[in-house]
Amino acid sequence: MQEIVLEEPYEFVPPVESSFWCWLVRLRLPGYLRKTFCVESFEFRGIEKLKQSIASGHGVILAANHSRLADPMAVGMLAAEAGCELFAMASWHLFKEGWWQRFLIRRMGAFSVYREGNDRQSVTQAIEVLEQGRRPLLIFPEGAVSRHCDLVMELMDGPGFIARQASKRRAKAGRPPVVIHPVTIRYSYDGDAEQLIRADVEAFEKSFSWQPQTQLTLHQRLRKIGVALLTLKEVEYLGSATEGDPHERAQGLISKKLDQLEKKWGLADEAAENSEPNNIVARVKRIRTKILPDLVAKKVSSAERQDRWHDLAACYYLQQIAHYPRGYLTGTNDLPERVIETVERMIEDYQDRASYHGPLHCTLVVGDAIEAPDTRERGVEGDPLMRRVAADLQSTLDALVDERRAKLFGSSATSD
Predict the structure, then answer these.
(1) Taking every annotated instance into account, which residue ranges of this chain make up the domain Phospholipid/glycerol acyltransferase (predicted)?
(2) Residues 266 and 281 in one domain
(3) 389 lies in a domain?
(4) Which of 110, 229, 257, 409 is the most interior residue, by most CB within 10 Å?
(5) Whole-model pTM?
């Protein structure tokens, strides 16, 4: 399990405004992205829309999809192209990965948000940033790294609340409202994906004591590995493997185990009231919020501590399993970047290490400004503002996928 949950008291980490450090870091950012994340080239679209919103005096949120750990730095490249600096909400654990990283990301405008609780300080900071309007604010409203850049997960409501509160304050001061620009991030790979990930596929097969399954197609090999990995988690969490379609089995595993955990931690009624069975990120967050306080306060025995960490690990893996969407790979005209993403996700989830392949090309598209009202529409399910953002992100991704398919497989190819 990646170390994203910490057993220590949360302390809000504020940003440090420093144009000098932004300038200095950006000089090294292209090389860092190449060396660390294999992202070697960029294309920016719609930057004039962002420039117009800034020039018009709006408070600006950049709401981006989040499929790779490189995304914040990629948006930093976009900001440099637009001639602006950013503030950004960043998960608290990123500030705990060494003093140098903490030093740098604070001076790049990042401030912490606690994903395992209601972080009023972070929300207040975000509202003040937008109220003042000195820099755009970057938020990743999916709430987690999806590892699939062509499908947007359900967005959290928090950014909509922040935008409306800031718009309300700006209205009282006679200033233009907050606008949200959806920022679509998509990565592509133009080489031979099968050759690129062959060693990783064989390593998985050998870890199961299999002979290399070279008699199968790449799609068949990945599917077989995926079924084996799913079976291991079914045995771990349910006691035995099930049969049937792998995606249905995965959904069944997620549903059964989350139901068990919600019942165990007294959250079953709250989960029913929220009526969001498919928002795995939100359900996992509620469970973590219930488990962590006494753990952090050292109010549990050694045995109970171990039990709680077992449940936290289950939450982590259930959320990760939910990031394998049905039909993402079909075995026919699969986009090479999807193949790479799937293998990297398997490596991260089941070998507990980050893996990057490339070279990748990153396309960033700034969408039209969506004005944030100062009140929320009543009597509708979900947040209408965030639904508009999600729809814009997904439609832009669909268009980019169509471009890729036309380039690789001909103009008759269409998106999924």
Answers:
(1) 60-188
(2) yes
(3) yes
(4) 110
(5) 0.92
Mean pLDDT of 284-303: 93
Give all strands (DSSP E) within 291-378, no chain letters. Answer: 360-366, 370-371
pLDDT at 269 over 90: no
Smallest Cα–Cα separation from 190: which of 43, 81, 29?
43
338 and 235 inside one domain: yes
Tokens of 3: 């170390």
In this prediction, residue 1 has a pLDDT band, given cuts at 50, 70 and 90, of low
Q: Tens digits of per-residue pLDDT, 53-82?
A: 999 999 999 999 999 999 999 999 999 999
Based on the fold, state whether residues 162 and 27 are members of the same structural domain.
Answer: yes
Q: Which residues, 6+ apart, have CB-to-CB distance to 196 below 8 Å?
A: 189, 336, 340, 357
Same domain, 201 and 184: no
Do residues 74 and 40 both lie within one domain? yes
Backbone angles phi, psi at 49, to 5 degrees: -70, -40
Backbone angles phi, psi at 182, to 5 degrees: -60, 135
Helix %, strand %, coil % for the chain, to 5? 55, 10, 35
Tell me how many domains the chain contains.
Answer: 2
Angstrom distance (rounded) from CA 131 to CA 138: 14
Cα→Cα distances 139→71, 112, 200, 212, 408, Å? 11, 11, 33, 42, 32
Element (H, E) at 183: strand 178-188
183 lies in the same domain as 268: no
Question: Beta-carbon neighbour count of residue 83 at 10 Å?
Answer: 10
Q: Rounded to whole angstroms, how far apart are CA atoms 103 and 388?
A: 35
CATH code of residue 138: 3.40.1130.10
Which residue in this structure is represented by tokens 């008759």?
412
Residues 117 and 222 in one domain: no
Report the chain's mean pLDDT, rounded to a whole number. Answer: 93
Q: Are 366 and 196 in contact (CB under 8 A)?
A: no
CB atoms within 10 A of CB 416: 14
Whether 59 contacts 167, CB under 8 Å: yes
